[in-house]
Design goal:
Blueprint lengths: L7 H16 L8 H13 L3 E5 L3 E8 L4 E7 L18 E3 L5 E3 L6 H16 L7 E8 L7 H7 L2 H4 L5 E11 L3 E3 L3 E3 L1 E10 L3 E2 L9 H19 L6 E10 L5 E2 L2 E10 L2 H22 L5 E8 L2 E2 L2 H15 L3 E3 L9 H6 L5 E9 L1 H8 L16 H20 L2
Parallel strand pairs: 3-6, 3-7, 7-18, 8-17
Antiparallel strand pairs: 1-2, 2-6, 4-5, 8-18, 9-16, 10-14, 10-15, 11-13, 12-14
Helix pairs in contact: 1-3, 1-11, 3-11, 6-7, 8-11
This protein binds zinc ion (2 copies).
């Protein structure tokens, strides 16, 4: 089956959706405007829908009896100040969980996921398109916080939507638009995010011996954590430990009462994960002991399961993609990135397949091929080519669905 062609007017509409979504990103689990935007478009297509977990939108696109296939698009943005300088760049701000006002950007490209899914739904809604069955569109909130898929399941997603024989999902990547990358087996790493609270004792900077300096302790801990992967994980295994935030103090001449940092731990192998988590705990406690301080408080912020593609479903989908994409389809190595997509299928023991599609313009892709760094997902300068990435994402979504539903 060749890659399904999409009418230029439908693609143009999809690009408009992408630009609109890009201008108005929202933070995880607070995607109220985005949810409404999706509902309005599903209404225009006559696709029934319901809300799930507050800002999740589940669309049920039916065309008679036939297979049921689910397709997930995540919808949230990130607290990033956009620096692309594009005419449609986001200037949005929002209240973060701690009350602070933060800039918001679709820095991971989830706007492209939504617009691609809506474009595929628009194609399937055309009467001349021949297919049968049901598409369960899962517009998932809160992927970046790791909370969204779980929230949908807890709010009864699979009690309220028909159970699919297959769950599909895709992510835009920092490689040439027009390309698709599909992994067999492991796709994304398991990830754990923790917050560490270090209790010190406040004192004047002139009399450090009367206090307990949580900054010195935090720094020693953070430096020591850098050695965990290097010295305690088999060099043939993959793992990463990153400290991503660090907060302490209000003034240079006060030893503060507390320091806080958060870290993110990534692995593929469950045994390596156990070892890493134990080592991180051990280092945090041991550095407290070395400082003569109480055990720091460890708070689990989020975790993402490892993601594996179903072998049989992946092989079948690979054939469908290969027919349409030829040498623009390639095998994807596993990524240290994380995804909560896998939970949606795991919950009902259904097979799932997840792939990436390219987002870069021709000039960005050429620069990348020449060895230059091109801004990638989560960069303030991440700037996919709107039309070309949308066409790739929409065609990939449509191909994957029609590979099961075409008549
Ligand atoms: Zn992301
Ligand atoms: Zn993402």
């Amino acid at each position: 089956m060749p890659a399904p062609s999409i009418e230029p007017a439908v693609l143009e509409r999809g690009v408009q959706d992408y630009l609109d979504l890009h201008r108005q990103p929202e933070l995880s689990m607070a995607e109220w405007h985005t949810a409404q935007f999706i509902e309005e478009r599903l209404d225009q297509l006559g696709v029934e829908h319901f809300r799930c977990a507050g800002t999740g939108v589940i669309g049920l696109q039916r065309r008679g009896p036939g297979p049921v296939v689910a397709f997930r698009a995540d919808i949230d943005g990130l607290p990033i100040q956009e620096e692309t300088g594009l005419s449609y760049a986001s200037t949005a701000t929002a209240r973060a969980a701690d009350g602070a006002t933060v800039p918001v950007m679709h820095g991971c490209g989830h706007d492209s996921h939504v617009a691609s899914a809506l474009t595929a739904a628009r194609c399937l809604a055309r009467p001349e398109r021949e297919w049968a069955g049901t598409v369960v569109w899962i517009f998932q909130p809160g992927e970046e916080s790791g909370a969204g898929a779980r929230a949908l399941l807890e709010d009864g997603l699979w009690q309220r939507a028909p159970r699919p024989e297959l769950v599909l999902g895709q992510h835009i990547g920092s490689f040439a638009a027009g390309q698709i990358r599909l992994a067999h087996g492991p796709v994304c790493a398991q990830a754990d995010s923790w917050l560490v609270r270090i209790q010190g004792r406040q004192a004047h900077a002139a009399r450090p011996h009367t206090g307990l300096d949580p900054i010195v302790q935090a720094c020693a801990t953070i430096m020591r954590l850098q050695a965990v992967v290097a010295r305690e994980v088999d060099a043939l295994q993959s793992a990463a430990v990153t400290v991503g935030t660090f907060q302490a103090g209000l003034k240079e001449n006060i030893i503060p009462e507390r320091a806080e940092f958060s870290l993110n731990i990534r692995t593929f192998d469950p045994l390596v994960r156990q070892r890493l988590l134990a080592a991180v705990r051990r280092v945090i406690r041991a550095e407290a002991t070395a400082s003569g301080a109480p055990d720091p408080e460890l708070i689990e912020l989020a975790n993402w399961p490892a993601l594996h593609n179903d072998p049989a479903a992946t092989t079948r989908l690979e054939r469908a993609f290969a027919a349409g994409w030829g040498d623009r389809l390639s095998l994807d190595p596993p990524s240290m990135g994380s995804e909560d997509f896998g939970l949606l299928a795991q919950a009902i023991d259904a097979p799932s397949v997840f792939w990436r599609y390219g987002g870069l313009s021709e000039s960005q892709a050429a620069a990348q091929a020449a060895g230059q760094d091109v801004p990638s997902n989560h960069s303030p300068s991440f700037a996919p080519d709107p039309a070309r990435s949308l066409a790739t994402g929409a065609q990939a979504a449509l191909t994957s669905l029609l590979s099961r539903l075409a008549r």
